[in-house]
Amino acid sequence: MRIFGDYHTHTIYSHGKGTIEDNVKVAISKGLREIVISDHGPGHFLFGVKSSNLPIMRKEIDRLQKKYKDINIMLGVEANIISLDGDIDVSNEDLKLLDKLLVGFHYGAFGKTILDNHALFIRPRIGKLLKGLKNSNIINVTRAVVNSIERYKIDILTHPGDKTPVCISPIANAAKKYGTFLEINAGHGHLTVDDAKIALNEGANFIINSDAHKPSDVGNVDRAINIAIEAGIPIDRIVNVEE
């Protein structure tokens, strides 16, 4: 089992270590046919891509596509969920620039409202110390993720369950219904084997990505492939793999 495309890679436009072209060159050297540049959404206060840079990135990718004809180079964003209603931190205008929309839950983003900030970003952190908050936190984050899948045309839900626990069944159901791929992330190890098994039984489909933050890690997905194998996910349920 090997991937033919890596759809989750970061660059210097957020907190990656290489340029777009650096990532592309490594992808080509590893035999990949597709790559997505997917820096963090602008709402991430530490690592977010500037909205003003997205048109620049779009032009750069279009230029590189003419230079490197043997690989499909796409622009994406790893948007942040910022409300219980599933809002993300990428505007409708910016979405028009993208080839792929990735969405994930991250600390480092701010909630759309005070209530959202408390429910999604403050309570889960407190909940790591106070176990009595765990179940309500899982409900809140799961609700936000499902709402986001229902509201946006999300191509990939990144590393579900990584930053804070979620209930994977309703997320997998929503992903199946709306055509969103659940990511098995080589960097974070999520989906976990247990959650991948649940999502598989719920009928969801998957994608394996590196989440590379330096060019040399583009295409490095052995950890994620091992999770998929242990979970018993067949190749035809993973969109970017082949024998």
TrEMBL record:
Gene3D superfamilies per the UniProt record, alphabetical: Metal-dependent hydrolases
Domain named Polymerase/histidinol phosphatase N-terminal: residues:
5-83
InterPro entries annotated for this entry?
PHP_dom (IPR004013), PHP_phosphatase (IPR050243), Pol/His_phosphatase_N (IPR003141), Pol/histidinol_Pase-like (IPR016195)
SMART domains recorded? POLIIIAc
Output a single Gene Ontology CC term carried by this record.
cytosol
The terms under GO molecular function for this entry are: phosphoric ester hydrolase activity; zinc ion binding
Which terms are listed as keywords in the entry?
Hydrolase
> What's one Pfam family here?
PHP
Q: State which Enzyme Commission number(s) the record gives.
A: 3.1.3.-
Q: Which PANTHER family match?
A: PHOSPHATASE YCDX-RELATED
The protein in question is named Putative phosphatase
Organism whose genome encodes this protein: Clostridium cylindrosporum DSM 605
